[in-house]
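Pilot study result, target chain (277 residues):
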Amino acid sequence: MSERREPFLDKFRLSGKVALVTGASRGIGRATALSLAVAGADVVLASRKLPDLEAVAQEITSMGRRSLAVTTNLRNLPEIDNLVKKAVDEFHHIDILVNNAGGNPVFGSVFNISEKAWDVTMGLNLKGYFFLSQAVGKVMRDKNAGSIINIASEAGIRPSLGLGVYSMSKAGVIMLTQVLAQEWGQYNIRVNTIAPGLVKTRFSEALWGNPTIRRGFEDSTALGRIAEPEEIANAVLFLASEVSGYMTGQTIVLDGGHFASVRTLLSTITSKEDSSA
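Predicted structure:
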């Protein structure tokens, strides 16, 4: 008699799992929290604005899942400790951490970056990721299992003009991922990163809301469009589930083929052929 195998799609299910998602009130964070809840997880939501968090929590509870909203400033270590304590008090364990909250208070030349702007950017984008991972990692270590997913940016791989400190902070997230994956693999804690390109969120509206900038991005992207938050959330679900069980220390660049030379090259060839006809 043949061995009965678990249906492949069941491996994406997160029933019985608890996820903690930062920056969960909107954009990629909201889409991720809802995606994980659809897959069966209970979700702890963190950001600085409670009303927006509670709206997402209501969406999750309407699916029949449990949710907890906790206001948190991730640059403040006592608030990180409070977030993790409340999550454990409510759910007793944390299986999935999505470090998504991020910010960029300034745009312009690195000649003009102030110490305050540096501290705010690094504090939220890197310091917050590290110390929340540290706190949650201790909880995961006790259970000998866990998946941490960091949201970086393609700017952490190839720098973007005007986003110098932001790019440096996201490059730090990629190295943070590799460091934690190397050390925590012995506890069966997997750590991976997603590096999105331009995503249609309120955070990046200054870019995609500018027709010239958006057109330039789309013209240098193989798929010819920017991403939707749900598309990033789908990749998070993959990394959170057992389907990616042998994957750790990796960075998935999810940018639609931005700067893929084939699209630009073909456009150039076509233009030359048209002009010579």
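One observation from the pilot: Confidence is low (pLDDT under 50) at residues 261-273. A full batch analysis is planned for the follow-on phase.
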